[in-house]
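Hey team,

Sharing the SMP-30/gluconolactonase/LRE family protein run so nobody has to redo it. Sequence (300 residues) first:
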Amino acid sequence: MDLSVTKIDLPCPVRAAASDGTTVWCAGTDGVHAYTTSGTPLPRSVAGDESRSRTPELRCLAAVPGTVTGTAGVPGTLPETVMVPRTFAGTPASEGSLQGTLVGTAAGRVYWLDPDGTPQASARFDGRVRAGGGEIWAVAGDQARRLTGPGRLAEPVELPGLDMCAVEGERLWWTSTRDTLLRGGPREIDLGRRERGAMTVCAGSLWISVRDGLLRVSAWSGEPRRLVAAPDGPVPFLVCANGVLAGGGRDLFALAPAAGAALRVVKLGLWPPLALMIAAGKHVWAFPAGRAQALIVPVS
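Structure output:
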């Protein structure tokens, strides 16, 4: 295992996890536990412990940071921001803002959660939640709905034959099992008939894992860029950690496109594959399948 990797033990294997950039939430059979991004457990309130019996067993989590926005960025990039811990984020800056929102899915519903993981509101939707660019989308089957506030979902967007998707604010990039097109950007792009893995938006581009590399598409123009060489593709996980693209399946790689740095491989030394990977500020959290552990990797 790489010397930069920190391994922490968890109460039980994690089914779902999310981060707002300052806090990491892990959901398992015993409820939701919170940590700092470096792995320090955060205390659970008495009210939070008492609420576990009425908290559903979550199968997916997503979070949006509480942020103070500075200068606007190019579409597909993060604006200059100051991260605010969710517990101090306060009232959203404007109506419909999702700043400081934590949500999860269970039993055919989307739940808006407080920092202890206690449901505060819900809406009927049987699917998963995905976050990016300050927005959260609920995705299932051939449709997606953007979350607009506690207990509220926008009108459904039809996505025939949905295969993979990536959230970029109010934009949803997606591919279909029915053809080879990438949709949702400034223009449709034919990706060709090749095996594809995970996809995410990072540093002004959409990234798609393919064999021996990463496909890159400009989020501004929709123009494909050159293939970036990467190990072990296609990989099941790609995340964006503070402008650093990270991905993997057994080991992990990290690439800082804006800095022009070479791709870095981080050896995790795993026998089981990863079950889950999330970005958490300047770290990546990786969860080995079947183990009550998390591997924390600094990437920037």
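Helices lie at 46-51.

Ping me if you want the raw files.
A.
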